[in-house]
Amino acid sequence: MDVIWQPKAVKQLKKIGDRVVQERILKATRGLSQFPDCSNVKRLTDHEPTHRLRIGNWRVLFNVFEAVNIVSIEEVKKRDENTY
Asked: What predicted TM-score, i.e. pTM, was given to this entire model?
């Protein structure tokens, strides 16, 4: 299956300051070509995009149709007592 990067996701990847994290994300997204036989992927309910890939504190959000379409990359902040 092909993996297609949206321009927004490419910009977000370039904005990540840590080169090691960028490489981890790129390596993990290459595995999406074997979808659905890839790890750390979860289908999201009532959400657009439809799937997420977890890489440490980072989430790659994507849709799956004829190809894997990577929509965005987001960092998950640490939760504390003020989160809820």
From this structure: 0.86
Q: Does some domain include residue 66?
A: yes
Domain that holds residue 57: 3-75
CA terminus-to-terminus distance, the chain? 39
Q: Structurally, how many domains does the chain consist of? A: 1
pLDDT (tens digit per residue) in 22-33: 999 999 999 998
In angstroms, the Cα distances linking 50 to 3, 11, 18, 29, 56 are 15, 21, 27, 16, 20
